[in-house]
UniProtKB/TrEMBL annotation:
A Gene Ontology molecular function term of the record: branched-chain-amino-acid transaminase activity
InterPro entries in alphabetical order: Aminotrans_IV (IPR001544), Aminotrans_IV_CS (IPR018300), Aminotransferase-like (IPR036038), B_amino_transII (IPR005786), BCAT-like_C (IPR043132), BCAT-like_N (IPR043131), BCAT_family (IPR033939)
Low complexity composition-biased segments: 7-25
Region described as Disordered: spans on this chain: 1-40
Name of the protein in question: Branched-chain-amino-acid aminotransferase
Amino acid sequence: MAPAAITPESSGTTTPTTMSASSLTQAGIKHMRSGSSTQAPLDASLMTVELTKSPREVPHPDGDETKAQKTCTDHMVTARWTQAAGWEAPELKPYGPFSIMPTASVLHYATECFEGLKLYRGNDDKLRLFRISRNCERMRKSAARIALPDFDPQALEEMIKALCARDGGKWLPKGRPGFLYLRPTMIATDPALGVQRPKEALLYIILCCFPDMSVSLAAPAPPALNGAATNGHAKAGSTGLKLLASNEDSIRAWPGGFGYAKVGANYGPTLVAQGEARARGFDQVLWILGHEGYVTEAGASNFFVIWRSKETGRLELVTAPLEERIILEGVTRASVLQLAKERLAKTVGEVEQVDVVERRFVMDDIISAYKDGRLVEAFGAGTAFFIAPVALIHFRGKEIHVPTAEGESGVYTRTIKKWLWDIMYGNESHEWGIVVDEVQ
């Protein structure tokens, strides 16, 4: 089956994409599909299976081994691509190291992309994936941006399901709800030096034991926030995230760049700023663009703020738009927006109606809402941290204490988080929760 044309991910609103970024993606797809009649497509039905002869013990979900984020399950899936022949048959085989040449393209030119998603063991003892098709489509866009080969996203989905079916039963035992972290990755293994389109690549999928970085839905409320930061250094006192806004000379992404793609080059350059933030007691960096202070992402998560509009007096759920492709097209982001539009369109009990808005906004907008008493909540949304309430933002000497951070989270953060949690863990039957039939 030939892959369909790529379009920007929709989050429920019509947003234009910048011509340069869109053209780059389409040009990459067109190049990789040229000559496709002589290249073998990625075909999950051809997968071969070799089971491990050295199965390992499953670590405790709260143990040090899990927290180290180094332990993977017994097996992995790989598929090799060459420009001459296309995709070879995928292999499900024992987890282990790769052998690549020191001149491999990925080691010199950052020709790699990846995805992050989770396999859940639900409260009903079923294995589930969450909106996996969106991750597979996004990985195809990321691959196109860095000249890696095209593939059928449905084939990638089937390969992921095969690994989950094989290892999920053992590594997520029944009776113990939890998750494993999935990491599909593609790297250019072409051994030729030189800045050029890779002629060889490797697609692989691993399942990793990962600690729960989200705040428990049942966690007790901490003491009230009192002086959460002093001279730009955060103090303990809330379960919410404490964010340090980036400086003008530290930019994560820019218009026409590759901020929308999940490529390694988006993450390595952020580690210095992240290290500085944590040394000062903050959890993550709030990435700001330009002198105007446009708000983009929080760490590696999409950022949301809830405030009361100065113009209309109505509550708004606001997040940065996709139109300039500066932010990642988050799967959790899209899910938050869709659920908010469907379920917060009218007031229900203590939860007041909210208008969902995707637009540019700046730090001064947040500061103004804070000073006026219109700031209600803020949270980050992503696979690793899930839905994480924000307690504090430090920006150019100013401290913003998010009012509802005096508990675990505000009512909207808590409500949206529970909706998603219920879908992921099978408390609610929903089309986004994809059941995986495990191998017995």
